[in-house]
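Q: Please design a sequence for this.
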């Protein structure tokens, strides 16, 4: 959205704030989740299911926000604001918890190694992906009036996110159901 609203150059601090602060969150959440998972194995399953349900609820709330006064911003986030937002972003918590439930508690290496690897993977993937999203936002800004197109893009992304979250929820619940019996 920042690229759509402010262009690439003004959005770079926001971009870097996301790309570097979020992997740090992934690492720290992972270190906490894996330690809890060693002591209480089912806490990971509960956290995973709760994160997916919360993500579905959150996406359904965002889809209904169509009032322009909620979407309009005066300036892009700074590096520090974007970094801080990663710690406040509820979607980010859901993803961090869900991603870190994939870290093996028992593996060839210590769980902390896998957490570092996961955080580095998030950073290496986020740099080009968010850059692409930034440039696509600029392209959308120049191709059409952004408000209506932004609504369609938000609804499509929300639909895809809910679909993938429902699939993850089904996989988690069906896997636990089979394991229970």
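A: Design:
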């Amino acid at each position: 959205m920042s690229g759509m609203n402010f262009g690439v150059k003004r959005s770079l601090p926001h971009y870097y704030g996301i790309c570097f602060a979020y992997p740090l969150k992934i690492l720290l959440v992972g270190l906490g989740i894996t330690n809890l998972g060693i002591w209480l194995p089912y806490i990971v399953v509960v956290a995973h299911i709760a994160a997916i349900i919360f993500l579905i609820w959150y996406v359904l709330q965002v889809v209904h926000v169509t009032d322009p006064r909620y979407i309009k911003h005066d300036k892009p986030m700074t590096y520090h604001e974007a970094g801080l937002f990663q710690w406040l972003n509820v979607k980010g918590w859901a993803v961090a918890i869900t991603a870190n439930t994939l870290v093996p508690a028992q593996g060839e290496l210590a769980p902390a190694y896998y957490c570092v690897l996961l955080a580095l993977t998030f950073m290496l993937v986020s740099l080009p992906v968010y850059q692409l999203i930034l440039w696509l936002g600029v392209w959308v800004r120049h191709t059409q009036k952004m408000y209506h197109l932004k609504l369609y893009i938000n609804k499509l992304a929300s639909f895809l996110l809910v679909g993938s979250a429902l699939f993850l929820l089904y996989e988690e619940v069906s896997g636990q159901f089979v394991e229970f019996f």
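Q: Thanks. Anything notable?
A: The helical segments are 2-6, 8-39, 41-63, 68-71, 79-88, 90-100, 111-143, 146-180. The longest helix spans residues 146-180.
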